From TrEMBL:
It is found in: Cytoplasm. Residues 48-184 form the AAA+ ATPase domain. The chain holds residues 397 to 663 of 712 of the full protein. Belongs to the AAA ATPase family. This is Cell division control protein 48-like C-like.
Amino acid sequence: LKREGFSSIPNERWEDVGGLDFIRESFYRDIVTRIKYPEVYEKFGADMEVGFLLYGPPGCGKTLIAKAVANEAGANFIHIKGPELLKKYVGESELAVRTLFSRARTCSPCILFFDEVDSLTTKHGEEGGWVVERVLKQLLIELSGAEQRQGVFVIGATNRPEVMDDAVLRPGRFGKHLYVPLPSPYERGLILKALARNKPVDPSVDLSAIGRMEACENLSGADLAALMNEVVTTAALEEITASTESTPNATSHTIRAAHFELALDKI
Ligand code: ATP
């Protein structure tokens, strides 16, 4: 059972992420190699960004790729939801932020992931009020102390980068900004392949072609995951029905194109 704010190495892997090659390369360079080969960076005296902002529409893999980076680097992962941090610790917000970073340092190498980070960094005067201001101030202090943050990387995620305080987005804070877009038709195929990994998909099913279908237009990765769930359920129910009715020549135990057609009709 994983509690919020609890650290562990995630199970999500690179292979679970469809597309997003640009972000993957960027994180490999800026996070994975730095965690795996700290001595090399030390030798070169590298002073690189340790704070990243993933922004873009919901359900396109921000959380997923952050977890995959941690897995790839063998780093602990602490998942914090911005609004919950505010709600939980009203009156002790600065302490909560300090505790969080100190916990991250103790379990270094560690990736500290702030979901809905915009809720912590709303521009002064807008929504929120004093709790936000105080959390923001403490967050900036923690983010600025890069030299004490050996092995701790911070990734923020937001659907609304435009409401964020510019001070938070400067170099040395959430300084590197990466856009996570809705997948292209080609990338939808890659996502379906990633989601189909370890599933008994019949070799006749052309996942790239399904990804390019008009019915999949504008679907996010999360939508495609929902589609895949529907497909799996349809195939499983078919097999259960066939086995309980002990139909002769019961359908094969694989996921076939017809299951995708049925699922797409439902969506
Ligand atoms: P939000 O902004 O709503 O927090 P998010 O961008 O963080 O969304 P995720 O939580 O990473 O999105 O994605 C939700 C689920 O959708 C994932 O657990 C995964 O099943 C699926 N998914 C999304 N994007 C991808 C992708 N690129 N490859 C494979 N699966 C994906």
